[in-house]
Amino acid sequence: MKEITVQLDERSYPIFIGQGLLQQAGLLKPYISGQKVCIVSNQTVADLYLDRLQSQLTDYQVSIVLIEDGEQYKNMDSFNRVVDHLLEQNVDRKSTVIALGGGVIGDLAGYAAASCLRGINFIQIPTTLLAQVDSSVGGKTGVNHSQGKNLIGAFYQPSCVVADIDSLFSLSQREFSAGMAEVIKYGLISDADFFDWLEANTDSIKSLDKQKLAHIVARSCEIKADVVSQDEKESGLRAILNYGHTFGHAIEAAVGYQGWLHGEAISAGMVMASNLSAAMGALTEQNLDRIKNLFQAFALPIHPPASMSAAQMKALMLHDKKTIDAQVRLILLRAIGDAYVSADYSPQLLDKIITEALS
Questions:
Q1: CB 265 within 8 A of CB 242
Q2: Tell me: the pLDDT tens digits for 43-81?
Q3: If you placed Cys at 195, which of 23, 108, 153, 187 could pair as Cys (CB 3.0 to 4.6 Å)?
Q4: What is the pTM for the complete model shown?
Q5: Catalytic annotation, pick one of 10, 90, 118, 285
Q6: Domains and CATH numbers, the chain
Q7: Catalytic residue of the set 238, 275, 287, 321
Q8: What CA–CA distance (Å, rounded) separates 120 from 113?
């Protein structure tokens, strides 16, 4: 088992990465406060892993609330269901919420924990690759709105994150590839050597080599933990973690959070951001080709859906949380491994990139 710490002074917490962690007796106990535990999950994940988790919780009063499976259910209706359940269970401020599932469950359960009684204890147990490498770490919680992705929420850190590599073997190929989009992102924004390693190890990653899986989860978490430790609430540096997300979130909103997985939308978004970076002369054509080829190697899309229009893309991008005074700030690349936040780009060039992508 590998342990990585998110350094946030008195709110620091560990990320545990390894095999068989869901059945490791005593692992969770130091991070559970009080006697009441509420597990938030969906039926798909519960069928696979709920029994393993409950075997660790025999000393607690455990209740369970299940949400429908899918990004379209990351909304206020589901949030209210979780909060209603917590209040019906008479939770107190020492009670603990455990999120067992992917990014939707983690974001939703975390926001409910942040809001109920103005904050109760919260543990993340991510079961998808995307959640293990990204959404479970850093304390971003929330739900979607018809106007855009994650527009309602709060920064609220868990007391620990438990990433059991064994859960990755139950993912469909499509879900695994969607998680790889966020893994590739870390190489693009912060670690050129990691990007090189991903290129060199594509085949063994796709074959689910356990050592390679442990490495991609650990390295991704190390990068994110370092960024979050420096900028918890995205006042500056942390924005680079949203590379491609301004475009990708627009795609998700346009399709009504259905049909495209988050990682698929972000893949297309990162390629659009890379195209803009290359058009601005900061990214070589050779490296642009490498980026596209790596996404395609994991069967990820490099273009947004043809059903979108340029006007729709631009309108939805304005709802991005990084937008200030109607100016869309984008994450761009100087080179692979070197990202920055900028509003200093040509609107005409952005229009050209959007139009070409949609053609």
A1: no
A2: 999 999 999 999 999 999 999 999 999 899 999 999 999
A3: 187
A4: 0.93
A5: 118
A6: 2-170 (3.40.50.1970), 173-358 (1.20.1090.10)
A7: 238
A8: 5
